[in-house]
What we know:
The complex is a heterodimer of chains A (157) and B (475). Chain A is built from four helices and nine strands; from the N terminus they run ααβαββαββββββ.
Amino acid sequence: MDEHRRTGILTEEQIQELAPEPAGKIAIVECVEDIPCDPCVTACPSKALTMDSLIGKPKLLSEKCSGCGFCIAECPGLAIFVVDFDYSEDKAVVMLPYEFVPLPEKGEKVHLLDREGKKVGEGEILKVRTHKNKTTVLSVIVPKELAMSVRNVGRIV
Amino acid sequence: MRIKDHPLLTFERGKKIHFTFNGHPIEAYHGETIAAALHAAGIKVLKKSIIYERPRGFFCAIGKCASCMMNVNGVPNVKTCVTLAEDGMVVKSQQKGNLEIGTDPEPSQIKKMNTQIAVVGAGPAGLTAAVTALKCGASVLVVDENPHPGGQLVKQTHKFFGSSRERAGTRGTHIAKDLFEKAQDIVMLQAAVIGCYTNEHEHVIASVKDGDLIELHAQKIIVATGASEKILLFENNDLPGVYGAGAVQTLMNVYGIKPGNNVLMVGAGNVGLIVSYQLLQAGVRVQAVVEAMPHIGGYHVHAAKIRRCGVPIYTSTSISKALGEEYVTGAVTVSLDENWNSVPGTEKEYSVDTICLAVGLSPSVELFHQAGCSLAYVPELGGTTPLHNKTMETTVPGLYAAGDAAGIGEANTAMMEGKIAALSCIDALELSTDETAKELKESFEELHLLRSGSFGERADQGKEKVFTLWREHHG
């Protein structure tokens, strides 16, 4: 049995495969099982996400992905993130789906949480955009080395 | 306990009403059931068991388990989880020394109704069947005992998986709203079906609504009665505060009432994972998810959503005991070895007020059994299942099954089965066109596709068994 099916957390190797070349602004599709689901394919305006059939894992054609993030709020599994690895010299931006209230605001300092919900640092909200389907996409400024670790935020109260 | 802010739902509460519970005044909102209003007022113990006088609360909250029955306005054994609270109601607990037998209310009149297709159950399968048949020009009537339409679909706040050609990406709550808008004129709510009778010419469904007996004559019947939550064996599993996952969803997603403040979730299938996430969205703390299997049963993406919120998932772990006198105040979990035996010394105590069980569902087959359909125990489909063929027709000609009642699946497959059952009825009633025939063919393919892949395999095997048994039954 795959490790992630015991823990609910992707392994280092699986994470490595998601972004073989961490550069630019690109979608990170954390969808590793063959479940019957395909809305990400129709959500992508650049046709960067493809699937052979309804069952299977979506394939990302990285050369076509513009990092627009349209797929983030459309993915029913909330499993797609967009990372801008080159936001600044030492910072990256992680765009992540968020469905809790109250929403953080632009400029707010937040706890950065990893795939286990552990605090790994502090970041800043760059952008808050709530979609028609009520999923919000948060853009969070994070230290560059945490770009592939941060997958949630917690409000500092 | 009422939820004020929610990221996905807005609760439009009706006007304030008042009723009494064992003489105490209770404030409720119009549109809430008695059990929901009592829970919002902090009352979890609804009655005492008659012999051992153990406290009892609701378990399923959808009218299936009878654990919430109370005396309402002098009538005993009223299922308070599906009975709307009304201004001035007198609600009393039933227990030793307080068991009014009451008088059987004589039906004030017998109403006769006719339709081409009768559908029992206004959930995803039933409503889809009704909307499909209506579109094809048949007369349809849907009967459901609940005060609200939509079955379990109205509680599914997550975006659906499946094909974007169908409704993938849409939240279950929206699908329910859309289906009900199309079917609202043909749905009869708060009408409990008590029997289904068949002769060569027609079917008759007996239903009770507002004390009247309704005789519904139909040429075809689609039974989509859904499922009931499974219980798990552990010490004190009858304590109020031990709720089925569906009950927790009913409280928080239909009525906007928190089931508790601290929850232990038992079961890491998709239901357990999704409901855990919904609890977090409602502002409830989920202390842990325990799963007896050595791996998470549900989709990784659902597990990942709660893991990144800091909720631990413990596999090879189960609940051994609920703590509390009148209601749940804690829970004890224990690790399991490879033979499913408890490992001594691995007990862990949690301080929780709610234990949510998401350990599977069983098809609600009472009506099939009463109507004379052949049933079989099919573990892949959750338990005893009515035999049916690919068109969803049971062993009683003209009686069809759809959705969880025909074997546990998920909402997408339930809707697809509802569509198939309706189109098969349309065909049998000789109302089909080239277009409906094509739609039926495509629906078979779509259903097959939804059940392919490693997560759908088991249900697919179960269905194959049911089809084979149906064929054997017909020689």
